[in-house]
């Protein structure tokens, strides 16, 4: 069975490429989860400042991700491949669920191999905070 799959991948390259693309997308998507380094940095800093926040119920979602390019050439890093800018939204509810959650926008440079290539830049966009 393994030989048949290998032969199919050799003669139908799109099969091999699609599985590589899927793995890359999956790895990049992980960088937008609450378990990712960027989200954890934001959550840790917010909970450190406000002990009333519920870190266990925090959520994170991808706002936007772009490949880094200069002109038309992709910007790559030798060990980690194609680089991307990524912006996520991190929402952290209060333990007292009657209060609205605190919302942050966070941005960083990532690759499919590494979610923590740069320090995370983030700011609080919670409307009630202004």
Describe the structure.
- With 130 residues, this protein is of the alpha+beta class.
- It has one domain (31-129).
- The strands form three sheets. It has a four-stranded antiparallel β-sheet with strand order 1-6-7-8.
- The chain has helices spanning 2-11, 13-30, 37-49; strands at residues 59-67, 69-70, 73-74, 76-77, 81-82, 84-92, 102-110, 121-124.
Q: State the assembly state of the protein chains.
A: single chain
Q: In one word, what is the shape? A: elongated
Mean pLDDT: 88
Instruction: Tally the structural domains.
Output: 1
Strand order, main sheet: write it out: 1-6-7-8
Our measurement of the CA-to-CA distance between the termini, rounded to an integer number of angstroms, reads: 62 Å
**SSE succession:** HHHEEEEEEEE
Report low-confidence residues grouped into runs of 5 or more. 2-10, 14-18
Please tally the helical runs, counting DSSP H or I stretches of 4 or more residues. 3
Q: Kindly name the structural category.
A: alpha+beta
Strand content: 25-35%
Helix content: 25-40%
Task: Give a count of the beta strands, DSSP E runs of length 2 or more.
Answer: 8
Radius of gyration: 19 Å
* Biggest sheet statistics: 4 strands, antiparallel
